[in-house]
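Page 42, continued from yesterday. The earlier attempt failed because a stray header line got pasted into the input along with the sequence. Redoing it now with the clean sequence only.
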Amino acid sequence: MPHLTDFRFSAQSLQDYVECPRRFLLRYIQKLDWPAEQSNPYLAFEQYRYKGELFHICVDQYFHNIDPVLIEQQIHNDDLRTWWQHFLEFIQEQNFLHTVSEILFQASLGDHLLIAKFDLLAVTADHNVIIFDWKTIAGDRKPTHHILVEKMQTLIYPYILCRAGLSVNGEQLAHPTNVTLQYWFPQYPHEPEPFKYSSVQMQQDQTQLRGLMEEIEIKTMGDFLMTEDEKRCRFCVYRSYCGRGDVAGNVLNEDQETALNLDLDNLDLNFENIEEIVY
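This time it went through. Structure tokens are written below.
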């Protein structure tokens, strides 16, 4: 794999690869600038993304013991204020023994490194561990379970946690049978999507991850082919490089499976520029 010395794979980079190897090449190997907007209407899309970023900041402040009243005083958007109220109602019903917000974990797999940033890790009274991922979405449709189960994030997050380990008060907790990944949607606070982990699933995930990384490693530049699913190109910032059109798709009107492949919380997250934290 050319020009990726010490590259740290993430859910986003591997999602890019499985959706379109050419996108992986352009973004992570050639590191090209983005020549096109990602979604149309651009302003509405950016507003959704900005509100999602602000929501994550507010929640992180909450878990750093900032007064929720003071946090709400910073909020000047009706949608964001509603999401914040939904979060407060949700979190006040929980009884966690321990929480840590916005934390990076790294794990090795063979000669490769995997990295993930968790929105929240929570230890329950029965010593189970929940990885929470706050999902803000554009439009009025929540991702279905069958879409989320196919996301690389669903595979990678619990795997990295179990490989890296998690100890609270000296007790090792991150055994696969103790781990759940839960997507929580501030627009749909009563419709979370949990994914319970297991030792069998972890072994399957390790095999799949190892295979993907080894496949990427042996490819030549010409082997990173464009996706055959041209619907994906409507939301790809590199589409003009591939002759796949100049006009962005409308994330607010697109069919569910295509539009919801856009993760508004992680679109620009570049783990190669994040300071390394090893567990």
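Notes: The first strand starts at residue 8 and ends at 9.
Reminder to self: strip header lines before submitting.
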